[in-house]
TrEMBL record:
This is Cupin 2 conserved barrel domain-containing protein. InterPro entries: OryJ/VirC-like (IPR047142), RmlC-like_jellyroll (IPR014710), RmlC_Cupin_sf (IPR011051). It comes from Fistulina hepatica ATCC 64428.
Length: 202
């Protein structure tokens, strides 16, 4: 658990279905508290599908949040496997001045800023500052990291993570899922990717 003061409210998740008469109704309306991912980050999994697109979830009585996605071992997170058929709706929260590892997954990720500020760090060193709720990043299998520039508050963003074939380099070889320490450049052993605190000028 992080020692940083935590101010974000629990996410609320509403799920709809049809009742026995075929009428559209709300079947679940619950808060989903965040869980610790590391000392300096938290996450919430809101829904997971595992049967591909189109999914059969409109006709099964299963809470998607209770499923397990195919694990991406490089990240030690419930992200989709490169050849999987999963999709994941999740929230990620990063502590003040926190930064993730530089990482790549074989997925297409729709990332949407919800609260706070967030900086996208790319492999070439460029940084893109997201400041307004709704600012979005479409991540297409590229190496990247995230940083919270604020010294005084957590940041939260939502991600829809879709299974995808790996991105390929100019020679046509597939990039593998990977992670490494942003400050040292050292590879992070499989299953050890984590968030670290850095100075604001990184």
């Amino acid at each position: 658990m992080s020692s940083k003061p935590y101010h974000l409210k629990d996410l609320r998740r509403v799920v709809t279905t049809h009742n026995k008469d075929g009428v559209s109704v709300v079947v679940r309306d619950t808060p989903l508290p965040a869980s610790d991912m590391s000392e300096d980050s938290k996450d919430v999994t809101l829904w997971i599908t595992t049967d591909g697109i189109p999914t059969a979830d409109n006709n099964v009585d299963i809470d998607g949040a209770a499923r397990l996605a195919e694990l991406d071992p490089a990240m030690n997170l419930a992200l989709v496997h490169p050849l999987g058929r999963s999709s994941v709706l999740r929230s990620t929260e990063l502590c003040p001045l926190g930064v993730t590892s530089m990482h790549r997954t074989s997925s297409v990720d729709y990332n949407i800023l919800i609260e706070g500020e967030l900086i996208l760090i790319m492999e070439d060193g460029t940084e893109t500052h997201l400041v307004n709720p709704g600012d979005s990043v479409v991540q297409r299998g590229t190496l990247h990291a995230w940083r919270n520039p604020r010294p005084d508050r957590w940041t939260r963003w939502m991600s829809v993570v879709l299974a995808a074939h790996p991105a390929k380099n100019p020679r046509g070889d597939a990039y593998e899922s990977q992670a490494f320490d942003l400050k040292t450049g050292e590879p992070i052993p499989i299953g050890k990717a984590k968030v670290a605190e850095v100075k604001p000028h990184l």
